[in-house]
Amino acid sequence: MAVSVGDDGILMETRKTTSETGGDAAAGPTPGIGRGRPRRWVFAGAAMLAGLLPLVVLEAGLRLFDVGRPAENPDPFSGFNRNFPLFERQGAVYRTARARAPFIGPQEFPAEKPRNGFRIFCFGGSTVYGHPYLADTAFPKWLELELTGRDPARSWQAINCGGVSYASYRIVPMVKEVMSYQPDLIIVATGHNEFLEDRTYHSLKSRSAVWQWVQARVGSLHLAELVRGWVNRSPAAVADAPDPELAPTVITRLDFDSGYASYRRDDAWHQSVLAQYDDSVREIVATCRKAHVPILLVRLGSNLRDCPPFKSEHRAGLAPEVERDWQAAFDLATVAEKPDPGRALRYYLEAAAIDPQYALLDYRIARLLDRTGRAPEALPYYQQARDEDICPLRIMAPLEDALRRIAAETRVPLVDAATVLASRCPDGIPGFDWYVDHVHPTIGGHQQIARALAAEMRTGGLLPAATAWPEAKRIEAYARHLGGLGHAYFTDGERRVGWLENWAKRQRLAGETFPCDAAGYARLSFRRLDLGQDEAAWTALREALTRDGAVIELIRKHAGDLLAEGRADRAALLRGKLDEIGRETRLSAKPVP
Q: Are 160 and 135 contacting, i.e. CB atoms less than 8 angstroms apart?
């Protein structure tokens, strides 16, 4: 028997002739040993195609009737899936994709840029977004107004791409996307959220290129989107905690009941987060450089004076008996704070000699030094309290250092918004005078950041050097813009602050957040006035003036700041109440200019 290849490419057996074998068997081809296996594969493939055909038809029908379009729903890959763009074209404009809601606010810009247009894209976290308010009072909007006021001949637009809870690595693909929208300037202000998301999304970010491609292709199917929507709406999905890797919304560690407890001292994790922050910012800069688009980096600040650390933990390896000594000194200092501040400070410093890494101890020392007129000594302790926070919701010194280093090495301008606001605070220590909570600036704070950005643009040649905007015109424009927002806008801000503090478990340290001196009560009144909590603001104001009449100068200055922010109604309200309480407490309250 011999083996040969038939015309159809299938192996065939042939029997030998009788002359070859000496027998009488008839010669001719018969099915060979290889014919059955290929046929089985053909049948199996046909069966698979027949099974998939209904799905293909269904997908085609869904696309035909535009049902289950992926971009209509939140991004299941939380910003890492390229199938979910930041913006979508809708007729003559680009609008923020609905997949990004509610973490990025609605924005739009013309698909065809005006001939005299200047287009700025602003990236960052909830500070850029405008929390606790919305984009209408965030610094990109004030920058747009500032540039229009200085150079009305051009069509200026600042598009707010700030994402709530977005860390720097989320910004990288968004910056790459907007390079196709003819940007004239990119502004990046990031750093507060780096420790909020990193661990949660590590496995998602470390997916292989092949697996990313497969997930992206599946994610683009209307049928897959429809099924995912049904699953997410099922009772079981609602009852169970969502998978942090594939959830349809941004889920942070603090969104879970165990999230606060999951934050522990972890130096190795901090180093990996710092490395990733460095890589992300450098990639953003490189993307802009490659596209020949100017970029400005922004160093954000935070509330040091009126924001105790969110969580404290002893240094690693502290022996139980040593920790007892630390606790004894800390408790003695706590008792002595009010009657004998000097004695309390000595006990606190004794505790610091044992363990200086306990964040709340650093804050207590800073607050005591501040109270006793030693603010320059207090500032480093306030900063250390922020940097030792086990639940770091404010940008830390190592991240700030990395940002400065990147700016210097790449020769990218760095706008120091932190210093801009700190310089307007007594002793250069920011509190509720310029921050609504732990990181989000007041409306006036956003205005100051916008002015600093415009000044840097002028220095860099992006704004004509001869442009100027009289202060009276600026205040008028501010007032007109704020007047169009309505009362509910500020009421919603108050609600969001309450939600944010509950989310950050601020009630665990409620006692630490309460003022302990006249200036602290004055700053608390400013914050409440900002949020529309007028009656509570007057209670704090009265306490401030009762404790120390000298605080009246701080209150007068704040009334002047409100006037400059275009909030004449708030300034007049504060001025009137100051006079009233001044008379009650027999203080010589002079009228606010």
A: yes
pTM: 0.79
Residue 501, phi-psi category: left (phi > 0), alpha (psi -120 to 50), beta (remainder): alpha
Compute CA distances 562 → 40, 434, 443, 447, 568, whole Å.
81, 11, 9, 11, 7
Q: What's the rounded Cα separation, in Å, for the pair 70 and 90?
A: 16
Report the alpha-carbon distance of residue 526 to residue 560 in Å, rounded.
Answer: 12
Angle 498-359-433 from CA coordinates, rounded to 5°: 45
Structure tokens at 99: 């997949």
d(Cα 439, Cα 195) in Å, to the nearest integer? Answer: 14
Residue in 420, 416, 457, 427 with CA at minimum distance from that of residue 442: 420
With CA atoms as reference, report the closest residue to 524 among 497, 492, 491, 563.
497
For residues 529 and 537, give the distance between their C-alpha atoms in angstroms, rounded to a whole number. 6
Residue 299 forms beta bridges with which residues? 416
Q: What is the DSSP string of 34-52?
A: TSHHHHHHHHHHHHHHHHH
Instruction: Tell me which DSSP letter residue 435 carries.
Output: B
Q: CA-based Rg of the chain, rounded to a whole angstrom?
A: 32
Of 153, 152, 157, whose CA–CA distance to 140 is shortest? 157
The DSSP bridge pattern shows strands 117-124 and 108-110 to be: unpaired
Scan for tokens 């363990």, then name that residue: 355
CA-CA-CA-CA torsion for 519, 523, 528, 529, nearest 10 degrees? 100
**Beta strand 117-124 pairing with 185-189:** parallel
Query: Mind listing the pLDDT tens digit of every residue in the chain (593 residues)?
Result: 443 333 333 333 444 443 344 444 444 444 444 455 667 776 777 777 777 678 777 777 767 766 655 544 444 444 455 557 899 999 999 999 988 888 899 999 999 999 999 999 999 999 999 999 999 999 999 999 999 999 999 999 999 999 999 999 999 999 999 999 999 999 999 999 999 865 544 555 555 667 656 655 665 677 665 665 554 444 443 333 333 332 334 556 666 666 778 888 989 889 999 999 999 999 999 999 999 999 999 999 999 999 999 999 999 999 999 999 999 999 999 999 999 999 999 999 999 999 999 999 999 999 999 999 999 999 999 999 999 999 999 999 999 999 999 999 999 999 999 999 999 999 999 999 999 999 999 999 999 999 999 999 999 999 988 778 999 999 999 999 999 998 788 878 777 887 767 766 666 776 788 899 999 999 999 999 998 899 999 999 999 999 999 999 999 999 999 999 999 999 999 999 998 988 877 644 444 44
From residue 310, how far is each of 83, 180, 404, 512, 568 by CA, in Å? 37, 41, 26, 10, 35
